[in-house]
Amino acid sequence: MSVTWAATDTATGRFVAEERRTGLGELTDHVDALRRCRGEGYLEVRLPDREFPVVTLGFRDERAVLHVFEDADTVSLRPGDGTTPADAVVEVPVMDEPAVFSGDMASSLDAAWSLLHRLLRSPAV
User: Fold this and answer.
1) What are the residues whose beta carbons fall under 8 Å from the beta carbon of 93, sequence distance 6 or more?
2) How far is CA 9 from CA 6, 35, 71, 97, in A?
C-alpha cells in the first residue's frame, strides 16, 4: 500500500511538512526510528490519490492521540483505547507544539498505529 505522509524529522525533531509518497513499510520504519531516537513524533498520513481523509498521529513515549480530517471543514478526535485513566493528562506533539489531551483521548501507541492502518484501508471506520 502506498501512502503520502509528512512527519517529524528523526534528526532535528522538527515537523517537516513536505509530503513523501512511499510504501507503508517506509512510514513504519520512520515511526520506529522516531520511537527509538526521539521518543516522540507527529505525522500526517493520507492515501496518494485522495486529499481526504488525513489521519494525524502525535505520540510521546507509549501514548498517542489520533485526529481524522474527513474534509477541509470536519475533524474528529478519536477516543482512546482505555489504557490511560480518563482524568490523566497526556501531552503529545502536534506539528512542533506540545498539545494536551485528557487521558480518555489517548491510546497506546501500538493501538493508535493499528487504528491508523485501518482508517487508511477503510476511511469509514
Assistant:
1) 8, 15, 40, 41, 42, 58, 59, 60, 99
2) 9, 12, 26, 14
38-61 tens-digit pLDDT: 999 999 999 998 999 999 999 999
Distances (CA, A) of 40 to 10, 33, 71: 10, 10, 27
Residue 7: name the closest of 89, 52, 71, 22 by CA: 22
What letter would DSSP give residue 39? Answer: S
Indicate whether this model's pTM tops 0.85.
yes
Phi, psi of 8 (to 5 degrees): -60, 140
The C-alpha cell that represents 117 in the structure block: 492502518
